[in-house]
Amino acid sequence: SPRLSLFDLPLDVISLPQTLDRLSGWMFGGPRAAHTVVTLNPEFIVQCQTQPDFVRAIQSADLVTADGVGIVWAARQLHQTEVPRAPGFDIVKGLMERHGAELRVFFLGSKPGVAELAAQNAARDHGIQVAGTHHGYFDLDEDQRVAELVAASGAHLLLTAMGARRQETFNQYWRQVIGVPVMIGCGGVLDVLAG
Ligand code: UDP
């Protein structure tokens, strides 16, 4: 898919179904390799003006989708291009619906208890396997421990919901240690799944 540049950040012109196809391929279609996915929203662009590590994390992502209409609008204004939306929640739900019991998911982030509840609900509703859960309130000196926990879990999909910047920089910095085929920063998604 073509890639645009929006305020010096990459943005892939890719629809939700195309995104699901690509991520399915990374998870089940060949040799296991680590990939990161960013779902771009306007808040990220604002934070990137003062946070070079956030910029680098987005620039190194394998896929950057438009999370919402704000990004779609910006791409239309700046590039006269219609970029389809592929929001984080729809990507996560789509992968779970598509793969069900063959999919192992690690739920990382949110306040203590939320990831467990999100995992229980997702397992009930979609039959997915829960590779593991961990809350999102740990210090930087615990990053390696958490990354190794995820690496040992055998997950195909890592949902990292620790807020903008923290979730993207964590995924990008630890990607080779974690080695999960699809790692996606997905903000409030665990809270929504937890209901
Ligand atoms: N969160 C987290 N660790 C943090 C900060 C936030 O796990 O250090 C979680 C928070 O509990 C919520 C999600 O990240 O489930 C998104 O948080 P918020 O809406 O504050 O972040 P934003 O995406 O707006 O930056």
UniProtKB/TrEMBL annotation:
This is Glycosyltransferase. One of its GO terms (molecular function) is hexosyltransferase activity. The keyword Ligase does not apply. Keywords: Glycosyltransferase, Transferase.
